[in-house]
Amino acid sequence: PLVVTSATHKPIVVQIVGGSKGACVVGFDLATGDEAWRSLDERAGYSAPILIQQGRQDVVVCWTGDSISGLSPSTGDVFWRIPFPPSRMPIGVATPVVDDNHLFVTSFYDGSMMLELSDTEPAAQKKWHRVGVDEKNTRALHSIISTPVMRDGYVYGVDSYGELRCLEMETGERVWEDTTAVPRNRWGTIHTVVHQSESSQTDWMFNDQGQLTIAHLTPEGYQPLSQTHLLDTTTVQLPRRNGVTWSHPAYANRCIFARNDEQLVCASLED
After folding, report:
1. What residues contact residue 124 under an 8 Å CB cut-off, 6+ apart?
2. Are 15 and 28 in contact, with CB atoms under 8 Å apart?
3. What angle do CA 173, 45, 143 make, to 5 degrees?
4. What is the dihedral of CA 100, 206, 208, 171, to 10 degrees?
5. Those residues with Cβ within 8 angstroms of residue 96's Cβ, 6 or more apart along the chain or in another chain
6. Which one, of 179, 192, 194, lies nearest residue 248 by Cα?
7. What are the tens digits of pLDDT across the range 115-147?
8. In sequence order, what are the beta bridge partners of 227?
9. What's the pLDDT at 198?
10. What order do you get walking across the sheet with 154-158 strand by strand?
């Protein structure tokens, strides 16, 4: 869920619930739990809503099972809506990523869509949509869980079978592909967080085998700097390939907190 402030200064919790009668997305009063508004008569998706600004207005972006839409945080009114119906089932999990006036989403079966956002008013239009023939013959990114990183005109993300890729932001064309960041498997996953220090920027990548890699992701390629194994996989999920660690880690106080289905570990990130 997402907590936003309404025009009356009341905190509103925005959640994609997939309810009937126009209640795909619902805003709840944080203090009381009462329904403040409902919006969109669509199927639910897994992706979390995000808050952006357009023309000095707050806009809640929701990727549902049928569209990418920009809503008023105060009323739920639809500012803009770009259809993105699934070919098989709603399975958009990755969080929408925004860089300047670009917004990017990626889905396992339906590939990637880039939107162009207006910076003067709440409005958006589709820039491109790239989808492959199937889940093994893909274009752009067909991500299952991994939220990409977008910066400086490029998109970095993980494809359907764990292929780490760099795309041109303007076109979706592939710049490079690397298959060493996570073992090749269906639904291969890497959770990437950008770390910005006073002297450098690095990408911290926790893969589905419990390995943390600190790396540089650039248009020239994938450059791992440091790697460590934090915890083993568990077989509650995907026992046929010896399990996974699918939970996104948390970072706080110069530590990483990562878990599987049996344990939680804390590792120091001190130099």
Report:
1. 68, 70, 80, 82, 103, 115, 116, 117, 118
2. yes
3. 30
4. 20
5. 47, 50, 61, 63, 68, 103, 104, 105
6. 192
7. 999 999 999 999 999 999 999 999 999 999 999
8. 213
9. 77
10. 149-151, 154-158, 164-168, 174-178
CB 245, CB 210: distance < 8 Å: yes
Question: d(Cα 260, Cα 146) in Å, to the nearest integer?
Answer: 17
Q: In what order do the strands lie in the sheet with 2-5?
A: 2-5, 11-19, 23-29, 35-39
The fold for domain 1-80 equals Thrombin, subunit H (2.40.10)
Taking only the tens place, the pLDDT of each residue in 197-232 is: 877 899 999 999 999 999 999 999 999 999 999 999
In the chain, where the domains are located: 1-80
Backbone torsions φ then ψ of 240, nearest 5 degrees: -65, -15
Under 8 Å between Cβ of 95 and 48 = yes
Please state, in angstroms and rounded to a whole number, the distance separating the CA atoms of residues 101 and 119.
7
Q: Report whether 137 contacts 130 (CB < 8 A).
A: no
The model carries a pTM of 0.94
Question: What does DSSP assign to residue 47?
Answer: S
- Dihedral sign of CA atoms 58, 61, 62, 66 in order: positive
Amino acid, res. 61: V
83 pairs with which residues across the strands?
A: 67
Q: Tokens 């699934």 sit at which residue?
A: 86
